[in-house]
Specification:
The chain is an alpha+beta fold. The protein contains 3 helices and 5 strands, in the order E-E-E-H-E-E-H-H. A hairpin with a 3-residue loop joins strand 1 and strand 2.
């Protein structure tokens, strides 16, 4: 536990699910309805620091959260993301996996998904199509 980490000091009302290794909760700043975080209980900054047992628990919680979202919100797709390190945009240095439900027409063109962190590289599919036409 870290004394200043918000994920190490959660209010039980925030928690949707927990076991001995993992906590699942609704994101405090949701991108879409149902946005969930899956967090290891042990204070670790990176996915690359988890034990095999923690990795399996995280994946199990991710699947359980997806099943719950499917029943409650019926999304059309999902983005699953981890910001790992400052250069990747991690702001809370405690590993957390974002499970973001996506809905048809929630944005004009979802193609490229997470590639939009670099907008000039996101629309690779239009570049590829242009090359095929040349």
């Amino acid at each position: 536990m870290s004394s200043n980490c918000p994920f190490c000091h959660l209010d039980n009302q925030q928690i949707i699910f927990q076991d001995e290794l993992v906590i699942t909760l609704k994101d405090g700043y949701p991108i879409s309805p149902g946005h969930i975080l899956i967090i290891p209980k042990r204070h670790i900054p990176s996915l690359f620091d988890v034990t095999d047992e923690e990795q399996m628990a995280l994946l199990h919680a991710l699947r359980a959260a997806q099943n719950e979202l499917k029943q409650q919100y019926a999304p059309d797709g999902y983005n699953i993301g981890i910001n790992d390190g400052l250069a990747a945009g991690q702001t809370v240095m405690h590993l957390h996996i974002h499970l973001i439900p996506r809905y048809t027409d929630d944005c004009p063109d979802p193609r490229g998904g997470v590639r939009w962190i670099f907008p000039d590289k996101a629309a690779y599919f239009t570049i590829k199509n242009a090359e095929l036409l040349d």
